[in-house]
Amino acid sequence: MNVLLNPELWSSALTLAIPIAFAALGGVFSERAGVVNIALEGKMLIGAFAAVAFASLFHSAWIGLIAAILAGALTAMLFAWATVYLRADHIIAGLAIDILAAGLTGFLFNSIYGQMGTPSDTPSLPIWHVPLLRDIPVLGPVLGHHEALVYLFFLVLGVSNWVLFRTPIGLRWRAVGEYPRAADAAGVPVLRVKFWAVVAAGAVAGLGGADLSIGILNSFSPGMTTGRGFIALAAVIFGAWRPWGSFLAALLFGFATSLSFQLQGTAAISKNILLMLPYIVTILALTGFVGRTTAPAADGQPYDPER
What we know:
- The protein contains 13 helices and 2 strands.
- By secondary structure, the chain is mainly α.
- The protein has a single domain (7-289), classed as ABC transporter involved in vitamin B12 uptake, BtuC, CATH 1.10.3470.
- The N and C termini lie far apart (61 Å).
- The model has no long low-confidence stretch (mean pLDDT 90).
């Protein structure tokens, strides 16, 4: 109970949830447009490396953040070209992107930084203190001070939800993921909409990687995402392919990760078992939830306008 009542647990849960939540939001974008996005892990990893590299090079965390967005988007263009225009299998293409990202970032990291690792003076995103919120009992320690991307995420989340469900752009976006043939007949450029939806997903997933590298850890190491992109994909399913639902699912996984850290040294359980907790929660969530929600009807199905 002491652990559960500790505000640090809940504050850390929110912090650890945000990288997953960004990637999950990207997953919602692409899957709403009918593209299964197994490549979230790779886009996060590319974004994480780009953020550190450019933040260190230009001595600005904000330039690193922009670089992460662009790197995630460029990686997504490769994935979108393969899945949308070449109609490659989404799972195989996504795994190829993940493997490419792991190899490329590992090679670049060793070539640029070598055994010295990330420079210690790499700028990190600032911590923002919310003047009124931080003075509220209980809520203040949990919500009153976080690094910048935690607060910016909620802006991105609100705008994304509004665009998807309240604008003609979002209607077209969802239409190509549900009934692409009908959308095509109505004059919607199906392939173009799918392509840019995947690119937007990559940009947002890159933000998740940047949050991890220059927001939380202020460093990069090869493979540092450690499966968070796959957990984000689980959050998309658990959140019923909706922005707010995916965020709440990511928050659950962030809580499980934070709890595993807090319990170390306080529970008579092996540290290695505790570190498995977020992945166990992911498996249990999917086991109990898959089949109870309905994915977009054309999710994962290639579309050929000539047929």
